[in-house]
Amino acid sequence: MSLLVVGLSHRSAPVSVLERASLGVDAQVKLLQDAVAAEPAAEAALLATCNRIELYADVDKFHAGVAELSTLLAQHSGVGLEELTPYLYVHYEDRAVHHLFSVACGLDSMVVGEGQILGQIKDSLARAQELNSAGRLLNDLFQQALRVGKRAHSETGIDRAGQSLVTFGLEQLAAGGEVQTWARGKKALVIGAGSMSSLAAATLARAGVAEVVVANRTFDRAERLAQILTEGDDTDVLARAVPMESVPYELTRADVAVSCTGATGLVLTAASVAAAVEGRTAAPTAVADETPAPDGEPGRTAATGAERGNPAATGLGGEDGCPLDLPAVQGTAGFSVLGEAAVAGMAAADLEQHAAWVDNGTVGGAQRAARPGTAGPLDLAPDADAIAALAATVATVGRIPERRRPEPADEPPRPEPVLFLLDLAMPRDIDAAAHRLTGVRLVDIESLAEASAGAPMAADVDQVRRIVSDEVAAFGAALRAAHITPTVVALRTMAADVVASEIARLDGRLPGLDDKHRAEITQTVRRVVDKLLHAPTVRVKQLAAEPGGAGYADALRTLFDLDPEAVAAVSRAEDSTEKDRGPA
User: Given 50, 105, 260, 322, which residue is catalytic?
Assistant: First the structure.
C-alpha cells in the first residue's frame, strides 16, 4: 500500500474555485465513507479548511487512486471534474509526507507560520478515527504531523514569520496601523461561534474593543462564547449574545464585524451593509468605483467639463467650420482637446485640415472670439504652432508621433471607513460587492491571499524546512522498517514453533529426561536459534529502512518459505491495536 494525497489549495486554485468546492460537514463525512469504499483506497482522511481541501489515502494502485480520489472530490464538491482538474495537485509517498508536515508547520499556509492549522489537522484525524476510515498509516502520519508542527513552533521562531489568519486580517483592516490603536473603543459584531469566530472575538477583546456582540444560529453557543469573553482574566470587554435575526440591527451599531459561519449562502448582502452605513458618512452611500460619470460612461470617475471635452468648457468643440468632432476625439483619447494630445491617432488628412483651421483662426495674430457661454476669448496661437509642427512631421515621416501619457486624473479622496468587515468564511459570508460601498472596508479570504503573497518570510523558515526534511526522512525510514516488521515477527514465530516441535520430539525419544536437563536443553536450542536469526533480522530492518528497501520483506518470505497468511495475521493484529488508540 502507498500514501497518496489529492487536493487543491489557495496556492493552486483561485479563491472563487475554492469557495465553490468547499465542503460542509455532512459532505465531508460522505466523502470519507465513499473514499474507503472505493477499490483503490484502504483508508482515508480529509483535511478541509478555509483555504485547502486535501484527501489523503492509502492506495494499492497509484493511477487508479488518483483517478478515484479526483472523481470523488469533484462529485462531492459539486465542481465538474474537467473544471476542477487543472487546480488539483498530487503528492505520492515521501512527497505526500513532506507536504503534510509542511502544512502542519505553517509553511504552506496563507499566512506563513500560523498555528491554527494544527488544530484543524487534529480535528481531521479525530473525524477519520470516529468514522474508522483511518488505519495504521494515516494514524501514524497525522499524529507525527502534529508532533512535527509542535516541534517547529517550539524550536524555531516560525511564529514570528506570520500570525493567525484572524490577526493578519485585522492588520489589513487597520491598513498598516497598530491593531490595538485601531481597535480601541470600537464596537465589534462577531457572526458565528465556531473556532475561527471564537478566536476573532478573543483577539478583538485583547486588542481593546469596547464591546463584542456574538450572533450565532445556535443561541446557546453564542451565549457560551460571550460568557467566556466576559469572564476572561486578560480583558474587561463587555460581551453579549444575540440571535441571528438581530444581525441587521447590530450591524448599524458596529464599527467592525467579523463573520465566519458554515452557511452556504451570503450572511451579509451588499444591500444590508449599505443599509447599515446609511447616514453614517458625509457622502452618500454608493458603490464608489461604479458611479456613472456625467457623460454616461459607467465606472469612470466624474471629470470636469474641460477634461471630458465639453464644448462649453473648451470653447472649441462647437466652432463653426471645424472639420473634427472634438468631443468624440476626446472621448476616445482620454485627453484634453488642446495641443498635440488632441490629434494623436488622427489620419494625416484630418490633421492637416485641423491645422489649416487653426491657422485660419489666428491669421495676423488675431484672436477668435469665444463662443457665447465660455469664460472668455480663446488664444489658439500656442497650439497652432504645435499642431502645425505635428502636420509637418506627418508629411516627413508619414505617421503621427506617439501621444504623451495622460496626466493622472485627480480622484476625490474616499471617505474614511465607518464599518470594517472581515470575512473569514469559505464560501464567503459577505457579498464581495460591499467593498465598493462608501464608508466600508472589506477584507476577505481573497484579499488576504493577495496581501500575503509578497510578504517576506522570516529566517526561521529555513530552519523549519530543515526540520521538515529530517522528519520526513525519519518517518519514511520508520515506515519502511515497519513494513518488514510483520515478516520478521512471522519468521521468529516460525522459529519458536520449530524449537517447540524439536523439544517435544526430544521428550518422546528421551522420556526419562529430568526437568532440569530438559530446561537447559530447551534454553540452549533457543539461544542457538536467536543467535542465528539476530544478525539477519537486524540487518534486514536496516536495509528495509533505506529507500528502495521494500523488496527485502519479499526476499525474507521467499528464503524462509513463510506463510503469507501468517504475515497478514501479524499485520491485522497490529492494525487492530492501532485503532484502539485515541488521537494524539
Answer: 50
